[in-house]
UniProtKB/TrEMBL annotation:
Top-rank lineage group of the source organism: Bacteria
Name of the protein in its database record: Glucose 1-dehydrogenase
Record-stated family: Belongs to the short-chain dehydrogenases/reductases (SDR) family.
Annotated PANTHER family: 3-OXOACYL-(ACYL-CARRIER-PROTEIN) REDUCTASE (PTHR42879), 3-OXOACYL-[ACYL-CARRIER-PROTEIN] REDUCTASE FABG (PTHR42879:SF2)
Pfam family name, one: adh_short_C2
Organism the protein comes from: Chryseobacterium arachidis
GO biological processes: monocarboxylic acid metabolic process
InterPro entries: NAD(P)-bd_dom_sf, Sc_DH/Rdtase_CS, SDR, SDR_fam
Amino acid sequence: MKISLHNQVAVVTGASSGIGSGIAKSIASAGATVIVNHSSERSVDEAKAVLKEITDAGGNGITYQCDVSKEDQVMKMFQDVVSQFGTVDILINNAGVQKDAKFTEMTIDQWNTVIGINLTGQFLCAREAIKEFLRRGIDPSRSVACGKIIHISSVHEIIPWAGHANYASSKGAIKMLMQTLAQEYGADKIRVNSICPGAIQTPINKDAWSTPEALNSLLNLIPYNRIGQPEDIGNLAAFLASDLADYITGASIFVDGGMTTFESFSTGG
Ligand code: BGC
């Protein structure tokens, strides 16, 4: 049994660092041509470094700058990718940010930025991807499915998170977006799923692992007793995007070392 994404084109949003870069590398190594999306001029060098790792390993792709919270930019990204590569087969809706604040001190800007990127960005990219999937139709030389969308959610689609109301709200909403799309487009053979990462060692949660004390307290939340790595997510993304996962749609799959078993109950309750 071998995961193959050969002959397929994948857009990975927020792929210049963190979980997105891990996913981009994993799906490229499974054979997909990868669009390494990054949000701004500031992240162009990082995106190019990710692409270089992909091409050095024998894979294919391009970098593409686009702020996923902006409708015109997302529409242009999909148009450009389709004109360069013919179509899009896989969307990994990964781009996401945290703007943490105590709820009573949370600014409208912190709220709008997180909802704009984490939720509206996933809506816009999914809409453009599904339009392209339906235009192309099923092509058995690529995949038995018409298209695949993987939303990168979080354990915080089910675990409430004090001090992060904007982020937790965006992830809770992604669950309903994902399931609704899976229901609405199942008959068209479009598969839609979410990966819900726990604590993965990336820049977004650096404060939680960069000192021994912080890491120790983080590990108290993780039964499997290690922090996750981007390839833990990348491995599942490659599988879920492949035809091996053809009967999986509408699912939230947790990759969290057991965080959602509520470790603190191992000694209490
Ligand atoms: C957040 C991280 C956090 C993890 C577990 C993720 O969705 O982005 O900052 O460490 O959830 O709480």
